[in-house]
Design a protein that fits this description.
mainly alpha; single chain; about 100 residues
């Protein structure tokens, strides 16, 4: 009986770890998608309305918030241009200035 309880407890623990790892992965995927979306919309806003437009300012703020959210929750942030995660808070708020 005790052996079954240990196996059951181990199984429950393993399932919990797999679920939490999958959940963390799904959340970081959401973080990545939010960053990619904001970056894309910023590029579009700059092209369609101009670098100093209110639309560009809105999406610049959305991109900033997406990066901050990723950093605060996962201590990493997604760089859509380099297509990689960064583990340093080293993003450049002016990384789209080449449009200006």
């Amino acid at each position: 009986m005790r052996h079954r309880m240990v196996l059951l407890g181990t199984g429950v623990l393993a399932c919990g770890l797999v679920f939490s790892a999958g959940s963390a992965r799904a959340n970081s995927d959401d973080c990545q998608e939010r960053t990619v979306h904001a970056d894309h919309k910023l590029h579009e806003a700059i092209e369609q309305h101009g670098y100093d437009s209110k639309q560009a300012a809105h999406w610049r703020q959305e991109l900033h918030e997406a990066r901050e959210k990723c950093w605060n929750e996962y201590h990493k942030w997604w760089d859509p241009d380099q297509r990689r995660w960064h583990d340093q808070q080293d993003w450049d708020e002016h990384d789209h200035d080449h449009y200006h």
